[in-house]
Amino acid sequence: MSVDPQLLEILACPCDQHAPLQPAARPDGGPGLACTGCARVFPVVDGIPVLLLDEAVTG
Ligand SMILES: [Zn+2]
Fold it and tell me: What's the whole-model pTM score?
């Protein structure tokens, strides 16, 4: 399930850079959002982005 593009536009990474996010696959193959600043990849659960630094993986 992908993230609503309009939602994606208003989301930003919780890292210090608050950089935009873009759709990306997680290392485990699940859907994710990659930060364009810090390269963290956040999980997307049932279409809802989980923008928690503790939940992110670094790619
Ligand atoms: Zn970031």
Answer: 0.89
